[in-house]
Amino acid sequence: MSVKRFFGANSREAMQQVRASLGDDALILANRPVDGGVEVLALADEAATSMTEQAVAAEAMQPAVRRQGVAEPEPARRDSYSGVVSATPPAADAPAASSAASSAPPEDFAALSQQLLGEMQEMRELLGHQDAGRAGPSAELHWQLLAAGIGHALAGELLAGRPAELADAPADQARAWLERQLAARLKVAPRAEALLDEGGVLALVGPTGVGKTTTTAKLAARYVMRHGPERVVLVTTDAYRIGAQDQLRIYAELMGVEMHALEADRPLESLLPQLVDKHLVLVDTVGMSQRDRRLLEQIAHLRGDSRAVRLVLLLNAASQGETIDEVVTTYLKTARAMGGRLEDAILTKQDEAARLGGALDTLIRHGLTLHFVSHGQRVPEDLAVADGAALIGEALEVGGASPFASPRGIEPPSGGSPGGAALFGQARAMGALWRLLDERVPGFGTLADAWALGSLPSRLQGERLAPLYERVPMTSTSLLWARASTLPGEDWMLPHLALDATGRPLAQPFPEHRLVAGQGERMAWAETTLGVSAHLLPRLPDARLRAWLEARGSGWLSQAQANSRVRYRGERLALSALVTEARALPPVSLRYRGQTVSVSIARLAVRCTGPGEGEPMWAWFAEVHGQDSGAVLTRRYAMSPAWWPAERGRSALLEQLAADELPTLARHAARELAGTGPLAIDGELRTFMAGGIAALAMHLEQAEDDWAMDARAQLLRLAGGRRPRRARTLLDGLIQVLEAREAMRHFAEQEAW
User: Fold this and answer.
1) Helix (H, G, I), strand (E, B), or coil: what is residue 599?
2) N-term to C-term CA, the chain
3) Is 70 exceeded by the pLDDT of residue 82?
4) Is the pTM of this model over 0.85?
5) Which CATH number fits domain 194-397: 3.40.190.10, 3.90.550.10, 3.40.50.300, 2.115.10.20?
6) Which terminus of the chain faces fewer neighbouring Cβ atoms within 10 Å, N or C?
């Protein structure tokens, strides 16, 4: 059996060890208080399955065993742990056990196994019943979503990507994560008033009573307030509802704008040529149920040949989620059937909605862009620009349990919806991840543009790549200068990487051969163009370059070897011999090669040897320890100028340590990108992409911000299974995202043809 023993100061700490070692599906066999804490026995879920198979096999073999007269094992004894069986009796009891074996009937081994498994199953069921009374984090979040009106499909999709860091997080942190995920998936207009400022022909469509006429007047009033009444015109096609045209005409007269009324069977195109001088044409259409057979005819009348007509779907926030979904689905299909596109929406009657979840769920799943939200009858006051975060917050801030929602304690599904719905859910998650990286990681846009070049002929790749080198992602604080030699086993050099204010690498690399000649000239370029004030160097700069850097006030820190010689108290000694002489600084926690470590740092005032003999410097000593084991993982040495503040030198040392995995990641990325197929890339573009993806993966692995946790959860989910938080796993996920994005772009281009 794969039974393991765990010890912690308390139950929570012990359970964290169980989860880290055996996963969330581990079976807890027993726990008991011991001196200094709590001891837990646990069994991996797959081990239990294996034991079941062994028991079945043993039971099948029993008849043959009995026929051959083979002695069967003795009854197993129970140790001090409740529910745990030891297969070997204590040595002191061996004679008595042997004697008992001759007189007592031997116990069936299969029955013994079944007994053990039965007790384990009972314990699992007991724990399950206990947990049902106090729902876990996922169950609580799932209930919140259902109570808000969010459907099971979207709820399962969201919770399948819940970060591991939230396993024991407070409820407010889990709630904040949930709001971020929903807001990231809800498309809102990228710019306030964009729908009106862009102009064109806007046809407001939707079911009866959704508020199209009032919303048309509100939009017109907002436009008039910004641009005046001269270039806007109102059109109504509603010849069925009594007083509809008169209502819009009154609004038009009050605003001083032009208005036209069309007969029900007259197409919009018959009027559009007369309105070519109008920047914005607002069309109030006939309200029509999604189940009305005349809907197809109405959408057909809204097609324009002289000017494109942009359909805007109005949705009643107070309707049931199923009704809203049916409206969107029907109108989308109808628009496509008539050769049009429906991508925009306005939410009405927000003030009448008990729960907004159904409307927001539908908008998210169908990918409609929400522009405005209407919350009353006043024109134009009761129309606001859509605020995604505010809407999500309001939706989740439900007043209490709903009689139409599932009760608390319901267990969330293990993943998204099956089949095509799961694919759409994954596409939504990837779209949200893409927008998050583009917004949060400087240089990601350049990396994405470079990836798209991989589909071009190789002779064009270098030509199109050149302008990307000129982009500057943001002001940097440090530049990590790579060694002027090829990576082991490769024919290319690691590019230089800029670091942000937190010491994390930016996603845009700077290859050596693309920079100006001369080390001093390159450093001057980095300081002038990127705003760099510190240089992290692979080796000690020469005396002339050190003097040049000091004159500019530019700090630096260089790597050194254990046998590097310095002068200390008049002697020429190796750095490794001076460790005990250095002054220890407080230890620091750091993310290093996929784990949190403790770094012991010390420094010592020394003098340089060789050219510039006697120049005062700081010698730095770092020892990296595993946080749990305490074992020494690596030792590092570095040098910095004596005039540079010690705190800056310490920060630079930590930045250099944190980037220790970059060469390994870049090599892995380059080999992944050298595959076959239409999306494979090679040469200079491959080097650029390998450095950029490696930097991005390390950036995400090191960042402790909420957005980075969200991005990691999505990338680890793409990698499959419960994967640990490691830069290499994140790198593989990033390549999948970039490949999927490019594949979808190719598919869209083919469809356009």
Assistant:
1) strand
2) 60
3) no
4) no
5) 3.40.50.300
6) C
